[in-house]
Amino acid sequence: MVGRIIIIGLGPGNPKQLTAEARAYITGDYPLYFRTLRHPAARYAARVNNHFRSFDCFYREGISFEQVYRKITATLLQESRLHKTICYLVPGHPAVGEETVTRLLKIGSRLGIKIKIVAGLSFLEPLLTGLKLDLLDGITVYDALAVPGLKEPSLNHLILAQVYSRPIASRVKLKLLELYPADHPVVLIKSAGTAAEKKKKITLKKLDHHDLFDHYTTIYLPPFSGGSIGELIEIMARLRAKDGCPWDRKQNHSSLRQYLIEEAYEVVAAIDSNEDQSLVEELGDLLLQVIFHAQIAREENRFGFSDVVTAIVEKLIRRHPHVFSSRSAADADAVKVLWEEIKSTERGQENTNYAIKVDQFLPALLKAYKLQKKAAELGFDWPTIGGPLEKAREELGELETACTEQDQAAIEEELGDYLFTVVNLARFLKVNPEVALGKTINKFIKRFTYVLEKVEDSGKPIGEFSLAELDFWWEEAKIIENMGK
Fold it and tell me: Are 180 and 246 in contact (CB under 8 A)?
C-alpha cells in the first residue's frame, strides 16, 4: 500500500480555532507527528492523543534550518511507509511559511506518496483582525529571513513573519533602514489571536530594543508614503497619456537628447559643489530622463524600463566574474583588463580587431579624451610625462607661428592640434579634461561675479574701469577664495 501523509494546520494558537476536520484527525487512530510542540494547539492535540512524536529534538541539535527540514521530511516519508497513514501537524496553515510542507509536496508526489492538506487558520487572519486591515487593500508578506530580497520600500502594507529573536530583528532593521526612514512606524505583534497576544507601536530605529521576539512574533509596516521607481514610472505614463501633459506627449528620443546631456552635466556640477541636496535633485532629474526614454519605447512596443534594468543587471554580473563567479582580480588594474576582455567577447571581437570607435555625439573635449584613452589601451601612448609635455610645447609653437602669419585656416588647425594635445596631457595625468574644465568654468564664474558685484557697488558702468582696476578685484576674489579653503 502507498503511504499517505495528512498535513494538518493547527491555526495561530488557540485550540478553539481548530477546524472540525482537524479535530477529527487529531482524535482518530492515526499517529501524530508535530513539527514543534511550542504551540498551544499542538500541546492540546498531544494531550488528547498520546500516540505522537515531536521534531523539537532536531532543532535542539544545533544544526541549520535547512538540515532540520531535510531530516523532518525524510523521517515523515519513512514513517508513512511504515504506518501507511500518518498525520503531520504544523502551526498556522500548512501552505503558509512551512518549508517542510513544500518539500513533502514535491518529493511525496515523485515517490507516489499521497498528500492531503487539512486547512487551518494562518497567522494572517488574526493579525489582520488585530491591525484592522483588509486583505484586498494590498498586503505584502515576507519571511523575516527573506527580507534581504526586498529591493525597494513597499507601497503595500508589509508584514514580516517569524521574527524569532532580537538578532533577527536587528538584521531586519538594518535592511529596512536602507529602504525606509528611521522614524517610519512599526507595529510588533506577538502571539496574534491568542490570549497571550501583545502589540507594541514603535519606530523602525527602535525595532530591536524590545523583548517581544519569539516564534510567534510578526512585524507590520504601513505603506511607504515616499517615492518609488514604480510610482515614477506610473507618473511618467500619466504625463504621456492622451489627457496628460502636451509638452511631455510631444517629446521623442531625439528631442530629449539635449536634456539628457544637460542633466548629466548638472549632476557633475552638483558633485563638484559637494552639496547633497543638489546632488539628490540632479540625480532625480537624470533618472527621469531614463524613465522618459523607457516610456516612449514601451509605447512603441520596443522595450520597457524593466528591460533596461534587466540588461544592466545581467551586464554587471557578467562583467564582474571576480565578484559573482570564480574569476579573480587582485586590484583595479586587473579588473580593468578583465572588463575589456569581457567587452571584447560580448562584441564578438578578436584580439586582432583594432577598430577604435567613440560615440560621435559626445562633446568634442570628451570625445578626444575617450579616443586617446582607447589608443593608449592599444599601446599607442607616451612612456613618460615628458612626451605629452614636449608635444604640447611643439603644438603651441606651431600655433604661435600661424598667428604671426595671420593664416586663419592654419590658426584653426593648429589650435585644434594644441587642444587635442592638452587633452592627451590631461589623460596622461589621470585627469578628465571635461571635469577639469567644468571646475575652472565654475571658478571663473564665481570670481567674475565678485568683480561685477564690485562694479555694481561703485555705481559706475563697467566701461569706465580700466583692465587693471578690474584685474585688481579679480585678484581680490582669488585671495578670498583661497582664504576659504
Answer: no
Could you report how far apart the first and last alpha carbons of the chain are, in Å?
86
pTM: 0.56
Helices (H) and strands (E) in the chain, counts: 19, 10
Residues 116 and 8 sit within 8 Å (Cβ to Cβ) = no
Residue 443: phi, psi to the nearest 5? -65, -40
d(CA 420, CA 183): 53
Higher pLDDT, 276 or 370: 276
Distance CA 64, CA 408 (A): 80
Backbone angles phi, psi at 413, to 5 degrees: -65, -45
The grid cell for 36 is: 514543534
4-122 CATH, one of 3.20.20.70, 3.40.50.720, 3.40.980.10, 3.40.1010.10: 3.40.1010.10
- Give mean pLDDT, residues 449-457: 92
**What CATH fold (topology level) applies to the domain 229-318?**
Helix Hairpins (1.10.287)
Q: State yes or no: pLDDT of 221 exceeds 90.
A: yes
C-alpha cell, 296: 516612449
Q: How far is residue 90's CA from residue 25's CA, in Å, rounded to a whole number?
A: 13
DSSP SS3 for 430: coil
* pLDDT mean across residues, the chain: 88
> What's the CA gap between 231 and 132, in Å, rounded?
26
Q: Which residue has the higher pLDDT, 418 or 334?
A: 418
Which residue(s) pair with 177 in the sheet? none
Say which residue, 334 or 206, is predicted with more confidence: 206
- pLDDT tens digit sequence for 364-423: 888 888 888 878 877 788 889 999 899 999 999 999 999 999 999 999 999 999 999 999
Burial class (CB in 10 A: 0-12, 13-18, 19+), 144: buried
